[in-house]
Amino acid sequence: MQKIAVIAGDGIGIDVTTEALKIMRCANEKFRLGLELIEFEYGADYFLKTGVGLPKGQMEDFRSNYAAVYLGALGDPRIPDMRHGREILLALRFDLDLYINLRPVKLLNVRLCPLKGKTKTDIDFVVFRENTEGPYVGAGGFLKKGTPDEVATQEAMHTRKGVERIIRAAFEYARLHRRKRVTMSDKSNVLRYGHDLWQRVFAEVGAEYPEIEKDHYFVDALVMKMVKSPEHFDVIVTENMLGDIITDLGAMLQGGLGMAGSGNIHPGRTSLFEPVHGSAPYMAGQNKANPIAAILTVAMMLDYLGKPNAAEAIEKAVQQAVDECQVTADVGGKLGTRECGDYIVSLLQRLH
Ligand SMILES: NC(=O)c1ccc[n+]([C@@H]2O[C@H](COP(=O)([O-])OP(=O)(O)OC[C@H]3O[C@@H](n4cnc5c(N)ncnc54)[C@H](O)[C@@H]3O)[C@@H](O)[C@H]2O)c1
User: Fold this and answer.
1) Rounded to whole angstroms, how far apart are CA atoms 255 and 333?
2) Candidates 71, 98, 277: which one to mutate for ligand 1, based on the most atoms within 8 Å of Cβ?
3) What distance, in Å, lies between the first and last C-alpha atoms of the chain?
4) CA–CA separation, 250 vs 256, rounded Å?
């Protein structure tokens, strides 16, 4: 028995997690996965009631007793500084040391792609974004804050261990999934210290994988290439902030935020899976949000948990729903969130 913690969160996180749960329950039964799904009410309402994102001891409970955490989305206009988001999502990423942010970019149907003339085989790559270092570690400060002489600093941190483990993870993935090339992206032409470390470690670790092609693009050149020739890419590895931006461009290439799933992973440990999108408060509760990102995220989670058959079946069901245009309005369909989720469940039930 593997325990999964499910946090729907806020806004459309609640809408899409309802559909993701239907898929989890259906797959659990159909494939006898032995998952125990436990729902938690953490999010904006809980924070406003209690003053904390997660209660004391909850992180330890997740770490010790759960195989994975599934999260819908966080974000609520009543908490403009997103403190609860930091206390839940960032705390999970940092406290559980989830150093791999894995974002597949896969086009399921040409009509979803904003690029002219690109096909499904052209847009099929994965991004390994470093998830615990870079400029997001919160190092920096203000001097003379609020005065005309104000100085603000924001430091980026890159450790040898941190850079090495994400680059190694990208190569291991490429080897396991028979991907032919790993591309590293940085800005080492101007960030001469931190990104120089990335250059050296990429060359060193890459040498251990002679069968895999390696190449490098400065991030500005990389985003141009992602638009002009996305077919070039198999596996991209990059640091935290650049990865944040690159992956949102990737989401657009595959049809928008409603189609993009992600994993925050530390191999062998409790990991966190969430659709890429936020809580889109203005469309919450209206049966409009696209549940596919959330459903593909379930497939990623099951794959991580060693259930590839169930993961593949969910992907297949989503593919069919997209091909038949049984989807929500953001991707050209006419269905509501619930109807789209139900349709994908019905396809999953019927698959052999
Ligand atoms: N990981 C997270 O939980 C996460 C990520 C990003 C933003 N946020 C938070 O979410 C809140 C809203 O942020 P935002 O508006 O910048 O980003 P958002 O992802 O919520 O929405 C951006 C745009 O994408 C569209 N969109 C997103 N998901 C969709 C879906 N499933 N179906 C159809 N359309 C979809 C929305 O219409 C919106 O126009 C903020 O509080 C922000 O801090 C949370």
Assistant:
1) 13
2) 277
3) 24
4) 9
* Nearest ligand 1 atom to alpha carbon 9: 3
Task: Pick the atom of ligand 1 nearest to 72's CA.
Answer: 3
- Cα dihedral 61, 158, 74, 252, rounded to 10, equals -130
Residue 317 one-letter amino acid = A
Among left, alpha and beta (phi > 0; psi -120 to 50; other), residue 216 is beta
Which residue, among 13, 80, 78, 79, has the nearest Cα to 41 in the 3D structure? 13
Q: What is the mean pLDDT of each run of 10 residues along the chain (352 residues)?
A: 97 98 98 97 97 96 97 97 93 94 97 96 98 94 98 98 98 96 97 97 98 98 98 98 96 96 97 97 97 98 96 98 97 97 97 80
Dihedral pair phi/psi, residue 71, rounded to 5°: -125, 135
Which active-site residues does the annotation give? 136, 187, 220, 244, 248
Domains with residue ranges and CATH for the chain: 1-113+254-352 (3.40.718.10), 122-253 (3.40.718.10)
| HSE-up (13 A, CA, CB side) for residue 304 | 27
On whether the CB atoms of residues 8 and 75 are closer than 8 A, the answer is no
